[in-house]
C-alpha cells in the first residue's frame, strides 16, 4: 500500500494534482492533503507516508524548512517539490535534500505522473527482498537518478557486469529486447560565466538545470537521461533510449534531441553549448563505444571556425595535423624569461605558438584542451623546481584551472589564447614573488664568494648555473645592487687587496701577483697600471716617499 501526501496552501493546486495524478495506474491507494507546512508535518508524524509532494512557498513553515526537518525525522520519506522556475534558493535546498524530482508551476499531467512514477519505481526497488545488493548499497535517501547515473558510469567505464547487476537493468530499460541506446556528450562553452551570472555561483544548481532540460526533452517512446561528467568540468553525458523501432530512427532522434537541448539551454539560461553523438546500439554495454564516438566527434570540432550551437555525429571533418608545434620545446625560453622577471618576453614566446596554431587550417577543441592541461603541468614543474608554486595551488585542495582561480571557458580561438595567457600570468606572479625574496640573498652570496675567493678564476657561469639565472639578468641585478658588474667587482677586490699587500716591503711583486691569482707579474703589473695609472713598483716608491 502506497500513501501520498500533498502539502500545499493553495487549494486549486491541490485539486489540480488530485485530478491530474494517475493514482490508480501507479498503484497509489491513498492520497492525503495538508493545507500548510505545519499541518503537513503533523500528518507526517501521524501517518506512515511513502511519498510527499511539497510546495516550496508556504506561509509560516515553508518548503525549505520542512525539507530540513524531514531529512532528520523522516529519512526514508521520498519527496517531490513544487516551485516557481526562478526560485533558486528553493531549488538549492531540493538538491541538498536529494528529492525524487522537482516540478515547476503550473504542474502538467505528464511531468506530475513522470515524477510520481520515479517515486513508485524507487519504492519498489527498495522493497524488493531479492535485491540484497540494492538494500545493502543504496542509502534510503538516495534518489533513483543517482542510482541510474552510477549504472551508466560503470557501463561507460566498462566495469559493468550483467550478472551481478541484473536487478538494476529494468531501471534503465535494458531488460527489454529491441531497445536502442546511444550516448551523447554536451559541452558548455560559457559555464563559469553562466554559473556566476545566472546561478549565483552555485555549480550544483547549474548542473541541476542542465540535466533537467536534457531529461525533459523526451517522451514515452524516446527517453533522455543525463549527468555531469565526473572527469571533465564542462561536459555532461546524455544517454538516449529508444523503445523499439529501428537503429536509423534512434540515430536521427538522438541528434535531433541534443540539438533541441542546445537550443533550449540558450533560450532559458544563455548557455552556449555544443555536442557530439555516438551511434545507437541494442546492447546497453555498447554505450561505452557510443560514448567514445561522441567524445571523438565533440573533441574534433574546429575551434578556429566554431560558430553557433553545433551538434555532430561521426568522426571529425579533418584529422589534427601531426606536425602541430608543441610548447614543450620552448619551455626553457619561457622559464628563462620568468626567472629573469621578464613576463612580457614569456608572453611573446607563447604568442609565437598561438600564431602558428591560428594560421593552421584546423585546430580542434580536443587539441586545445590537451594544450591547456599540458601547459599547466609544464609550468607547475618549473614552479616546483624554483619552489615557487602559486599560493592558491599550495593552500587549496583544487588543482589545475580551478586551483588557479581561472574559469577555463573558451568558445573561440581568441578566448583559448586569452586563457593560456591567464595561466602564464598566474605562474609568473607566483614565480616573481618567490624569486624576488631570494634575489637579495643570492646577490649577497655571490659578493661573499668573490670577497673570499678573489684569487681564483671566477667565471659568471658558476653563478648562472648555480642559481638558474641568465647571464644578462644576473649582471643587471648585481650592478643594480652594488654599482659594479661582477667582473668589475672581482677586479676591484683584487686591486684593493693589491694595495694592502704592496704596503708590505717583504713581499715580492711576483709573490703578490700569485696571491692575487694572476698568471704572471707582467699581467698583474699591466692590470694594476690600468686601474691606478701607475705600476706596482711606482706605487711602492710613492708609499716610501710618503712615509718620509
UniProtKB/TrEMBL annotation:
One GO BP: phosphorelay signal transduction system
Organism in which the protein naturally occurs: Paenibacillus albidus
Protein's name according to its UniProt entry: Response regulator
A single GO molecular function term of this UniProt record: sequence-specific DNA binding
Domain Response regulatory: 3-120
Modified residues (4-aspartylphosphate): 55
Record flagged with keyword Phosphoprotein: yes
Protein keywords: DNA-binding, Phosphoprotein, Transcription, Transcription regulation
Taxonomic path: Bacteria, Bacillati, Bacillota, Bacilli, Bacillales
Domain HTH araC/xylS-type: 444-542
Xref: PROSITE patterns: HTH_ARAC_FAMILY_1 (PS00041), HTH_ARAC_FAMILY_2 (PS01124), RESPONSE_REGULATORY (PS50110)
Entry keyword Phosphoprotein: yes
Record InterPro entries: CheY-like_superfamily, Homeodomain-like_sf, HTH_AraC, HTH_AraC-typ_CS, Sig_transdc_resp-reg_receiver, Tscrpt_reg_AraC-type_HTH
Domain of life: Bacteria
SMART domains attached to this UniProt entry: HTH_ARAC, REC
Amino acid at each position: 500500500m502506497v500513501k501520498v501526501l500533498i502539502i500545499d496552501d493553495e487549494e486549486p493546486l491541490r485539486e489540480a494534482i488530485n485530478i491530474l495524478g494517475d493514482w490508480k495506474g501507479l498503484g497509489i491507494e491513498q492520497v492525503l492533503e495538508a493545507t500548510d507546512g505545519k499541518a503537513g508535518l503533523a500528518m507526517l508524524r501521524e501517518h506512515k507516508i511513502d511519498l510527499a509532494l511539497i510546495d516550496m512557498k508556504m506561509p509560516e513553515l515553508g518548503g525549505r524548512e520542512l525539507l530540513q526537518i524531514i531529512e532528520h525525522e523522516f529519512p526514508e520519506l521520498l519527496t517531490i517539490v513544487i516551485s516557481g522556475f526562478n526560485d533558486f534558493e528553493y531549488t538549492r535546498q531540493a538538491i541538498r535534500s536529494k528529492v525524487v524530482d522537482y516540478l515547476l508551476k503550473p504542474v502538467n499531467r505528464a511531468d506530475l505522473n513522470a515524477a510520481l512514477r520515479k517515486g513508485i519505481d524507487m519504492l519498489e526497488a527498495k522493497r524488493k527482498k531479492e535485491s540484497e545488493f540494492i538494500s545493502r548499497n543504496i542509502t534510503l535517501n538516495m534518489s533513483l537518478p543517482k542510482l541510474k547515473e552510477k549504472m551508466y558510469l560503470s557501463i561507460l567505464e566498462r566495469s559493468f557486469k550483467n550478472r551481478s547487476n541484473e536487478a538494476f537493468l529494468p531501471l534503465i530499460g535494458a531488460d527489454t529486447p529491441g531497445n536502442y541506446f546511444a550516448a551523447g556528450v554536451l559541452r558548455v562553452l560559457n559555464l563559469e560565466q553562466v554559473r556566476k551570472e545566472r546561478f549565483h555561483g552555485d555549480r550544483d544548481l547549474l548542473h541541476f538545470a542542465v540535466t533537467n532540460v536534457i531529461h525533459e526533452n523526451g517522451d514515452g517512446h524516446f527517453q533522455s537521461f543525463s549527468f555531469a561528467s565526473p572527469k571533465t568540468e564542462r561536459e555532461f553525458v546524455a544517454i538516449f533510449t529508444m523503445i523499439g523501432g529501428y537503429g536509423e530512427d534512434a540515430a536521427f532522434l538522438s541528434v535531433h534531441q541534443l540539438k533541441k537541448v542546445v537550443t533550449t539551454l540558450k533560450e532559458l539560461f544563455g548557455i552556449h553549448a555544443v555536442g557530439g553523438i555516438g551511434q545507437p546500439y541494442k546492447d546497453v554495454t555498447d554505450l561505452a563505444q557510443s560514448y567514445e564516438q561522441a567524445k571523438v566527434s565533440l573533441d574534433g570540432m574546429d575551434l578556429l571556425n566554431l560558430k553557433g550551437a553545433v551538434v555532430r555525429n561521426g568522426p571529425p571533418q579533418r584529422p589534427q595535423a601531426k606536425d602541430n608545434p608543441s610548447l614543450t620545446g620552448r619551455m626553457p625560453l619561457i622559464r628563462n624569461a620568468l626567472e629573469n622577471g621578464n613576463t612580457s618576453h614569456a608572453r611573446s614566446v607563447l604568442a609565437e605558438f598561438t600564431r602558428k596554431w591560428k594560421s593552421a587550417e584546423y585546430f580542434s577543441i580536443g587539441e586545445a584542451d590537451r594544450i591547456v592541461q599540458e601547459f599547466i603541468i609544464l609550468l607547475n614543474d618549473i614552479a616546483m623546481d624554483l619552489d615557487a608554486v602559486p599560493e592558491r595551488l599550495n593552500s587549496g585542495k583544487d588543482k589545475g584551472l580551478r586551483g588557479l582561480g581561472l574559469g577555463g571557458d573558451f568558445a573561440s580561438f581568441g578566448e583559448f589564447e586569452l586563457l593560456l595567457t591567464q595561466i602564464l600570468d598566474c605562474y609568473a606572479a607566483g614565480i616573481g614573488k618567490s624569486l624576488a625574496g631570494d634575489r637579495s640573498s643570492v646577490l649577497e652570496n655571490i659578493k661573499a664568494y668573490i670577497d673570499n675567493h678573489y684569487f681564483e678564476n671566477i667565471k659568471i657561469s658558476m653563478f648562472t648555473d648555480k642559481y638558474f639565472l641568465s647571464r644578462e639578468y644576473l649582471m643587471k641585478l648585481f650592478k643594480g645592487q652594488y654599482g659594479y658588474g661582477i667582473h668589475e667587482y672581482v677586479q676591484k677586490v683584487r686591486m684593493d687587496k693589491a694595495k694592502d699587500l704592496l704596503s708590505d716591503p717583504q713581499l715580492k711583486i711576483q709573490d703578490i701577483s700569485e696571491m692575487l691569482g694572476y698568471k704572471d707579474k707582467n699581467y698583474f703589473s699591466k692590470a694594476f697600471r690600468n686601474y691606478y695609472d701607475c705600476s706596482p713598483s711606482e706605487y711602492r716608491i710613492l708609499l716610501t716617499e710618503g712615509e718620509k
